[in-house]
Backbone:
């Protein structure tokens, strides 16, 4: 988490991907940078720290579930080496409309 003047300006976190034992080495992450602080390297810094933390704890795969229309997030994850898989249609719903999602994944060797 990044805090400026007691205001949170960015965070990255992860949680288990699924409960079943087969997924014990996979996590799903979130990353968010407040709008006035973007394009200055904070997202890369937060994800770099989170990825180091995950790798150090034996995580093999990190997954992000992105709004398929969120081009900024898709470009950001591609720059960090995440690979995209298929777009799934109408999985989410927000502001009275269906959202398509895309899964992005990064594997540690
Ligand atoms: C996606 C997000 C986290 C990026 O954070 P950021 O601090 O602006 O990103 P950075 O400045 O660290 O950029 C890292 C890299 O991604 C690229 N990138 C970031 N935003 C981009 C954009 N809108 N278009 C193209 N590339 C972009 C940068 O060019 C940079 O590449 P480089 O380091 O190789 O030069 C931020 O836009 C955000 O919080 N968006 C809203 C929430 C969200 O969509 N979260 C993801 C869902 S899990």
Residues:
């Amino acid at each position: 988490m990044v805090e400026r003047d007691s205001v949170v300006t960015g965070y990255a976190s992860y949680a288990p991907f699924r409960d079943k034992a087969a997924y014990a080495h996979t996590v799903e992450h979130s990353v968010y940078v407040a709008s006035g602080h973007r394009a200055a390297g904070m997202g890369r810094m937060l994800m770099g720290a989170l990825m180091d933390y995950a790798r150090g704890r034996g995580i093999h795969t990190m997954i992000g579930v992105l709004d398929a229309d969120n081009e900024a997030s898709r470009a950001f994850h591609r720059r960090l080496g995440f690979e995209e898989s298929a777009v799934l249609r109408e999985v989410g719903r927000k502001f009275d409309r269906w959202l398509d999602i895309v899964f992005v994944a990064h594997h540690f060797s």
